[in-house]
Amino acid sequence: MTWQLNDLQTLLAEHDGWSVAEAGESLCLTNEDGIEAFLAVAGEQILVEALLFPQDAVKDVSGLNDTILRTHKMFPLSTIGINEIGGDSYYTAFGSLSSQSKAETVVIEVATLFRNIEAFLELYQDYL
């Protein structure tokens, strides 16, 4: 089965502590701590992503980038990238999986991303 957005919305809304809302061609997921992530289905892939912080808020971009490259592998199923939004650069945390993944795998991916976001923010706090 290939996941469709409406099926994912139903699946993820069943998780205690998460709210799920349509956001254009994606879903906006909010956990019990108020962290927002966006989920989209694109062909063979499901992508779930959240903003961490703007690059402008970083005191030492080079130092942070070096630290991220040395530490991101400590966090399962998630990685960090930089995206441009409205002309500004933001650090993002994201994970991706097959659009044919089992329901349990999709929930694990989203839950892990939420946990990793908190850990990323704590670990990289000294650079902000």
TrEMBL record:
Pfam families: DUF2170 (PF09938). InterPro entries: DUF2170 (IPR019231). This is Cytoplasmic protein. It comes from Enterovibrio norvegicus FF-454.
